[in-house]
Amino acid sequence: MEQDQVEPTEEAVDLVEYPLLPVRDAVVFPHMMIPLFVGRDRSLRAVDEALEADHRILIVTQRQAEIAEPTPEDLYTIGTIASIARMLRMPDGTTSILVEGLQRAKVVDFTQTRAFFRARAMPILEVVEEQPLTEALMRAALALFEKCVELSRSLSDDAYVTAMNAQDAGWLADVLAAHLDLDVDERQQLLETLDPVTRLQKLSILLAKELDVLELEDQIHSQVQEEVDKTQREFMLREQMKVIQQELGELDPLMQEKNELHEKIDASQMPDEVREKAEKELARLDAMPPMSPEMGIIRTYLDWLIELPWAEETKDNEDVVQVAKLLDEEHYGLPKAKERILEYISVRKLAGEKMRSPILCFVGPPGTGKTSLGKSIAKALGRNFVRVSLGGIRDEAEIRGHRRTYIGSLPGRVIQTMHRAKTVNPLFMLDEIDKLGTDFRGDPAAALLEVLDPEQNHAFSDHYLDVDYDLSKVMFITTANILDPIPPALQDRMEVIEFPGYIEEEKVEIAKRFLIPRQMEEHGLKDLRFSDRVLREMVREYCYEAGVRNLERAVATICRKGARAIAEGRKAPRHVSVQSLPKYLGPPQYSYGIMEEEDEVGLATGIAWTAGGGDTMAVEVTLMEGKGNLILTGQLGEVMQESAQAALSYARSHVADLGLKKRRFDKLDIHVHVPEGAIPKDGPSAGVTIATALVSALSSRPVHREVGMTGEITLRGRILGIGGFREKVLAAHRAGLKKVLLPKKNERDLQEIPRKVRRDMEFVFVERMDELLPLALVQPAPDSAKKHPRAGISS
Ligand code: ADP
């Protein structure tokens, strides 16, 4: 750290000898008065020694403060000769001295190290030439220091006065060094900078840095102050405004809104615990600083609580006869559903409020009137009607809502729908309950269970609402196309009412009595007649479906064209003829009647059950030379592929019984194809159809084209029962098949089939493939192979 070599000048050769006081964390500069704490024994002795002589003492800083008993090597060599002005003994026995720095000195050698240090030192004289540069430097340093004193909260004005009175550059530098906030090393370095001008330059740099820091501090401080002032000012103004508004009898909009909320909560029919919750939230709103973003969230929440129905109720129409009449007025048929509603009303009349509403599940193909009957029931009972579709819901939160901590969160669909219902006892329709999904975000079916369970639904919990909501007075009706996908736990809660597909006659009747009058009215038409023949034609050629949705659309299309003719000033048609149908509806989309033109080899007609009702399904089998592969095409599902395998195994193992020619199956590829392109197909009930097509191909015997069939087969050729009996039979009837081959197991289901259909078709119930095959296959004709070139190859 010793930087400048001490150049012993001629005047400075006289050495002085004084007691030496080592100090730990201070550096004493000339012209500086400083109190020093004296603790160590050796130090006290040195002080005593000095006081006994001329009060002069040599003060030198330790290189490392933590050394308790320093040796001469532990001390810097440049120190300060000082004079002890006063010694004070403190009440606690410690001693401190007040010293005044006089002159820098370099320790030359130690004359005594025992008891205390005594050293010889060479005083350092500073000679500063009066130069303009020095003068300028002094002024600049002084100006900087003045600013520091102005900004700093620790430097007093006295410090500036002392600096101002310094008489040369070295002196000024020492005064500044004494006052600046520097650490011991930096101070010692300045002490050892013996050239006064260099020292003052170093200090100017330190001062400039200090000033930067002080200015920044000041800036931050004033910014903070400004902020504080601003909010205080706003607060004051707002308080004043309140007082003024009170004086004028006005309310500020915020207060007004809060008061309104308060009144609304009072006026609503919330149960007590909900009211408590609402009031708590309102109190939170009161305590909130204006413009806080949370205010909006609380306000929306309160609106939900206020607007939800809590007690508003409609009174049920209990007149059974009248309800029956109303239901019949709007819907044809559907006896089971109508009857169930009438029973409900009757029991309700006797049991009163104690009776829980039933939870009905309407199951049937699209367009069979599930939704519209639901609406009619609501109308007949005098309840409000609301509806929500569950199709594709995968997230539990869609049913139960998100917690309010999420930005933009809302109640779930159940509560949203109740909000729309406006009463606590609406007829609530949950559509497409069979299309509910599940994934990682929880199981919506579990939430629905809570909605539909009479034991739990008096306290339904929605995450957003955060208070229980009573759903027990709601009449729930769910709808589904098929029952299978509905979780069994949900099925358990509900009473299933089937909505079968309609047969042709029923469709014609529904069109005449309901669809046509409604569409004519909607299109402003007065008289347009559809004859039965036209309607039958429409049903057969344009609307191949289980329900009547497309039929209604077709009627609407015709009405629209009629309305347009009138609007354009043309003559309005009076009646719709069979010939004019293509003009209105385009070319026929289905050809009613037998599916194939001829009995064919390797082509059998199955009947399948789909979400849209039932449908016929052709199965084609072709044989080719090959390596014994079974090729399956037409988007067959796993179960259907397995039943194709089973059918093939059956055929192979019965080659002899079936009267088939012996074949080398290992030299044969068998291709089974189920057309109707991209529609995925599955289920075991195509088994008999595939087996029939296979045997037909293998034996070259064609299949009767007007025969339809369905059933699962076992390897031994037994035929097992099937589901969807009625839909399948109705589909076969729609397709114009004359004979259906069905599993024996399903014989008892025949009673569900309308008499008209039973009369139109022949039903044969079979238990085994060997009973079925003779009914399905054409008796062999001697030249059959020639007549049917698709008959396959012979081995
Ligand atoms: P779903 O809900 O079963 O899919 P919709 O209730 O939407 O079917 O019915 C489709 C249309 O068919 C509606 O306009 C409905 O009024 C009419 N409809 C269906 N069945 C009948 C019926 N039995 N009597 C009168 N109209 C019916």
Distance between the termini: 113 Å
Uncertain segments are 2-12, 784-795
The number of strands is 24
Q: How would you state the average pLDDT, rounded?
A: 84
Mass-distribution shape? elongated
Helix content: 40-55%
Small molecules bound: adenosine-5'-diphosphate
The major pleated sheet works out as: 7 strands, mixed
Q: Which structural class should the secondary elements be placed in? A: alpha/beta
Instruction: Tell me the strand percentage band.
Output: 15-25%
Strand order of the largest sheet: 18-19-17-16-20-23-24
- Radius of gyration, in angstroms, nearest whole number: 52 Å
What is the helix tally?
A: 26
Description:
The protein has 26 helices and 24 strands. Helices cover 43% and strands 17% of the residues. Helix 8 packs antiparallel against helix 9 (293-307). The relative contact order is 0.05. Mean pLDDT is 84; it is low at 2-12 and 784-795. It has 795 residues and is α/β, with parallel strands linked by helices. A seven-stranded mixed sheet has the order 18-19-17-16-20-23-24. Strands 1-3-4-5-6 form a five-stranded mixed β-barrel. Adenosine-5'-diphosphate binds at residues 331-334, 366-372, 510, 514, 547-549, 552.
